[in-house]
Amino acid sequence: MKPNTVYVRMRHHVLFRPNQQIRLGHLAEIVGPAETKNRLSELVLHHIEAKDRNFLVMEDIQVIEAIHRLDATLDVQMVGPSQTIVEVRFPKKSLAPVLFCAVWVLLFIGAALAIMNFHEDVSMGAVHQEIFQIVTGKKLDKPLILQIPYSFGIGIGMILFFNHLFRKKFNEEPSPLEVEMFNYQQDLDRYIAYHEKSPSGKKR
Q1: pTM score > 0.85 for this model?
Q2: Judging by beta carbons within 10 Å of its beta carbon (0-12, 13-18, 19+), is residue 151 exposed, middle or buried?
Q3: Which of 28, 86, 26 is nearest to 54 (CA)?
Q4: CA 149 – CA 154 distance, rounded (Å)
Q5: d(Cα 46, Cα 84) in Å, to the nearest integer?
Q6: Are the C-beta atoms of 56 and 86 separated by less than 8 Å?
Q7: DSSP letter (8 states) at residue 60
Q8: CA angle in degrees (0–180, nearest 5) for 85-173-180
């Protein structure tokens, strides 16, 4: 590697707080001579202001221009992604206990109704009666010996399916919800990269 060559690899997505300075070391991995690497890591690219809102797009061309303003003799080699999505997270207001309980009750009732309507559509009660009659030879209107374990099984199955019990995770395998959230974040980043403005005010 030549002494005046630096390799810069942009990160895909980074988080910042309001009024924070965006330094090159936050946005990218830098490979080069130690002294040059330290100088570039502290290079300020932008200061986050209220007008920047929630998202910014930092592009590789902006990084190259900033580095050359600092040291025009450097040979900058960009590798990897050509831009970084900067997300500015503002402090969130804590949710009032009454509102939290209201949302929780609403979601609980909605989920319960969805499960009951599904079971009504597929005649689950009649299915349990039929299974009980096949196994025991007796007809029973409410085969609780099947219905109670089945009800517990729904809850246990949901816990295993989503791989979470409160904040505890059973293994390192991502849950279907996490995979969907990851795909959503990828789509969101692509949308932001196409539509959002860069700090210079230029629209992509």
Answers
A1: no
A2: exposed
A3: 86
A4: 9
A5: 13
A6: yes
A7: H
A8: 45
> Which tokens belong to 33?
């001579």
Determine the Cα–Cα distance for residues 30 and 10; give it in Å rounded to an integer. Answer: 9
Q: How many CB atoms lie within 10 A of CB 36?
A: 19
Amino acid letter, 155:
G
Residue 150 Cα distances to 22, 165, 178, angstroms: 54, 19, 26
Q: How many CB atoms lie within 10 A of CB 9?
A: 15
Per-residue burial over 116-144, b = 16 or more CB atoms within 10 Å of its CB, e = otherwise = eeeeeeeeeeeebbeebeeeeeeeeeebe
Q: What tokens does 32 get? A: 């080069």
Across-strand partners of 30?
Answer: 8
Instruction: Determine contact, residues 9/29, Cβ cutoff 8 Å.
Output: yes
Tell me the pLDDT tens digit for each residue of 78-136. Answer: 998 888 888 888 777 777 888 888 998 999 999 889 988 988 888 888 888 889 888 88
Walk across the sheet containing 83-88 and list its strands. Answer: 13-16, 83-88, 55-59
Give the DSSP H/E element, type plus range, for residue 101: helix 97-121
Distance CA 40, CA 199 (A): 19
pLDDT in tens, 41-51: 999 988 888 77
Task: Determine the 3-state secondary structure of 78 from DSSP.
Answer: strand
Block residue for tokens 């009660």: 125
Cα dist from 35 to 15, 31, 32, 40, 60, whole Å = 26, 11, 8, 9, 22
- Give the whole-angstrom CA distance, residue 102 versus residue 96: 10
